[in-house]
Amino acid sequence: MNPDEKEDCECAPPQAESNPTGGYDRLQEESTFENAEASRMKRAAAKHLIERYYHQLTEGCGNESCSNDCCASCPSFHRMDNNAAAVKALELYKVNAKLCDPHPSKKGTSSAYLENSSINSTGHHNLACGNRKMNHKELHPVREDFKDVSFLTEEKVYEILESCGEKEDYSPLIRVIGRVFSSAEGLVQSFRRSKQHTKEELKSLQAKDEDKDEDEKEAATAAAGSASAMEEGGMDLEASSSSQPGDGGDGQKLGPDEVSVDIEAVRRVYWRLLCNEKVEAAFLNALVYLSPNVECDLTYHNVYSRDPNYLNLFVIVMENSNLHSPEYLEIALPQFCKAMSKLPLPAQAKLARLWARYRTDQIRRMMETFQQLITYKVISNEFNSRNLVNDDDAVVAATKCLKIVYYANVLGGDMDTEHNEEEDEEPLPESSDLTLQELLGEERRNKKGPRVDPLETELGARVSDCRRPLIPFEEFINEPLNDILEMDKDYTFFKVETENKFSFMTCPFILNAVTKNLGLYYDNRIRMYSERRITVLYSLVQGQQLNPYLRLKVRRDHIIDDALVRLEMIAMENPADLKKQLYVEFEGEQGVDEGGVSKEFFQLVVEEIFNPDIGMFTYDESTRLFWFNPSSFENEGQFTLIGIVLGLAIYNNCILDVHFPMVIYRKLMGKKGTFRDLADSHPVLSQSLKELLEYEGSVEEDMMITFQISQTDLFGNTLMYDLRENGDKIPVTNSNRKVSGRVISAAFMGAAAGESVLIYSFANCTE
């Protein structure tokens, strides 16, 4: 070989100097270096192939129709533990077994295996001098391309950013972002937060590490024993089952609202990167590639139950402040919403609890992102009775994602989970005899009660427990969606369980009052028609007189007496008749009730009932609200009938001009009235109690008040009430003034004679 040929051969040693004394020694040293370098390359190639065999045995290639019996993706493959897989990998290496090509959709395949194709499985025994010699100058550009980066940390991003800034070439950063943010595994491992362990936790982790080291030593011993039989021998093998950096495999237990992502680091990284348009395009393209694979994982592979850290990728993606931009609305965001809507209930609940700790502006940004997608899809498509919005996957998925944000908004608000009314201890035993209604499937369906949102059950908190959310509920209403929603079809999807379509009634927060009222109207009408059909069947079977309507015949001058007496008889004899359609007749007047007569009847009844001269309710001029008169002469039966009248009005789709404070509706939802509700119903009393509780002087000496209150009756007489036994003799002091405030609040919130009865009867009639 002439000198020129030697220069062309990169693995050939340098030419010897002409010095006769040192030439032989130099040639011998260079020959030794060449042999050592070749041996090192052989070991590296063998190690790489064995690792690929190991990953193929433990994780597979990602191709579900793989026919390789030595691949975990093959349907006929028998699973094995990590130690057995390590030994099997060595055996496959010795026989030069088939290696599968990594499938693009495989999440468990490291990007290092996807990028590194320099070593071929069929040529691992043939490393001749034609291969490139891997000196330091040739390895340096590979490190600058960051091809070995399979996950990201804040420090790594800044390192890549600095390197790209020096060369004014951001293509390596764009490739890294595209590779990591399009890989579920890479994104799950990225931006892990470090935990400061206590001494006890450090001791526990140290003990676990010692046990783990012993297991790894056993696996390494078995692998070394197999490797010694190979002709190459002497290879330095690492335990393939060891966790990668950022795995979060430190054994730390996360709380119900905690994730292993350093959210603040993610926000800082986004803030640094999103100012570059090319980098922003990389995020967009990566999300388009990532979302279908994530949706497949959640739908078919149950990946969250195997790795709860899978939730990290949703947390990271949702921190992207550009998700609402037009570029995302067409493809990327709809696909991501579809994937996110496939999350199981525990994962959705954990997301809601996590986001509940966010600031209001951060929750608002996520809400506006999903709202904008819904509005964009509604406006850009022509929906009608044939092309229903319920069939649009993007709108449905965005609504489901918006529900998670909605519950985060509720949980992050002012919650009151303690003051609940006592529920019935045990339900009444069901009879084995079936009635006609039950045979028709009506009554048993109604016994199920109102449908409860599964996510609400998973969270263990009700929307009614929230006094004040972070964002007003009105902002979650989407008006364009309400304008095109076919409520009759949507109600059918909601009621018929066999229908496999989405109903927006399962997400009532997005509907306005008009749409909800229309849904309630359909529900009430169907019940009326059901009662009418059952009445006809009863008349045919039992020979009863046909009476499909709830008829009320009243006199205008005695409308209260006639209506209440008639309703009392119906409630006692046959309460099921209250579900029939109301038909009102005014005595001595001609006319057919097509709805107008019923509305006039309810308006007259309400005007009469809430007349302050009757004394059932009191009117507060400052708040313009009604409250129960504690000194009313009416008995509980009268309040019961008033509750029935109000329930019938709603049931028959009649809107009444009734002004109650919010605490009444909270009681309808099963909550108790508390001191905080006084500010709405009795503002003067609430302010007085606040001043009492905040008074810094001596309450007993300066105010001289006792556990006794006074009220004025209809005739202007002052009536005294003891809040405790012998309350007029118990002074209010600095030590017991909090007790005094609670007792007074309870007295005004629950002492009215007809309050609980009215609410109970009203609730029964409106269920």
TrEMBL record:
Q: Catalysed reaction(s)? A: S-ubiquitinyl-[E2 ubiquitin-conjugating enzyme]-L-cysteine + [acceptor protein]-L-lysine = [E2 ubiquitin-conjugating enzyme]-L-cysteine + N(6)-ubiquitinyl-[acceptor protein]-L-lysine
Q: Where is the composition biased (Basic and acidic residues)?
A: 197-210
Alphabetized Gene3D superfamilies for the sequence: Hect, E3 ligase catalytic domain, Hect, E3 ligase catalytic domains, Ubiquitin-protein ligase E3A, N-terminal zinc-binding domain (AZUL)
* UniProt keyword Transferase present: yes
Compositional bias annotation for Low complexity: 220-232
Task: Give this protein's Gene Ontology molecular function annotations.
Answer: ubiquitin protein ligase activity
Ranges for domain HECT come to 574-738
Q: Where is the composition biased (Acidic residues)?
A: 1-10
Which UniProt keywords are present, listed alphabetically?
Transferase, Ubl conjugation pathway
Instruction: Specify the domain of life of the species encoding this protein.
Output: Eukaryota
Q: Region Disordered: what ranges?
A: 1-30, 192-256
| Residues annotated as transmembrane | none
User: Which PROSITE patterns would you find in this protein's record?
Assistant: HECT
Identify the EC number(s): 2.3.2.26
Q: List the protein's name.
A: HECT-type E3 ubiquitin transferase
What is the protein's species of origin? Coilia grayii
Which taxonomic lineage does the organism of this UniProt entry have? Eukaryota, Metazoa, Chordata, Craniata, Vertebrata
